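The record is given unchanged here:
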Amino acid sequence: MGEFSQGLPAVRADSGREEADCLLTVVVPTRNRGDLAARTVASILEGSERRIRLIVVDQSDAPDTKRALEPFQADARFRYVSSSSAGISAARNEGVALARTALIAHTDDDCEARPDWCRQVIDAFERFPQAELLFGTVEPGEHSMPDRGFIPSYLVHQERLIVGLRRKTETEGIGACMAYRRRLWDELAGFDESLGVGTPLGSAEDVDFAVRTLAAGHGVLETPQPRVVHYGFRTWEQANPLLRRYLYGIGAACAKQLRVQGVPFLAVLARLGLRWAFAQPVADFEHRPSRRLRLFAFARGFTAGFRMKIRGDFFTLTSAPPRPSPGPAPTSPLETDCTPK
């Protein structure tokens, strides 16, 4: 069964079902999207892989999301966490700190996992023991209004393992289909909570996490098999503001890495900057955004990131909540505790 399947303690998947070994924890942040989040949760729990845990970190302003997720409380694999934190990075950190499995995966609350998503994530890490971080395919959901808008996607066409910061331009990835070994999260001290949706910098927590992974000498795997479907429809009027936010955060993250890593990052920054400013975005927006818009947004973010205070590998925004201390993690891929809490 592979390295994650041997010697793990058993956990009852849910009442009335046979016991199975827990291999993977999925952490899903959500905020004020109860109906959508319920679809996301259902797609994961109804998938073909039963040896999982699912933690939803709810940052909602009202109890609607909690009520929408109440039907899943009977499933012992599911855990609901109400959080006063802000931003997707803080929510992910909070959820991962509660996890006790060797593998962690993320998707967003406007996505649905394909039935074999969790199984494909586990298989990929078993096939590539040198990979610490994984990005998969984000397919656009069907919609009937192509003349009015689009759904951002990220399509992976071939499997490849990237090692070394100089090769960062060969991988992008987005957090809607992302997984990693828990030990990597411990080593990197989690996501930078000043980056990502719900923060002043607005995006790029996934880009920053990938850059830090490569800088630490670890492998990043892109693989087409783990697939989620994205239903985040945007009107054409929303396209440019979305891209501005995306590139603003990337610019800030790049400025931080230049300050942290110094001269060795300059060549990487030049290639990344040229691609993000001038080439077609790797995340598919179903049109080619203006070069001027991309360059201006990246430059503004880079300037902001260069002026902000940093501590270690992290920005230190006073408005950001403190990053949770890493909880006790498995000392090896085989030591996990999936006992329902």
Summary: Confidence is low (pLDDT under 50) at residues 4-20, 318-341. Residues 236-261 form the longest helix (26 residues). The two ends are 26 Å apart (CA to CA).
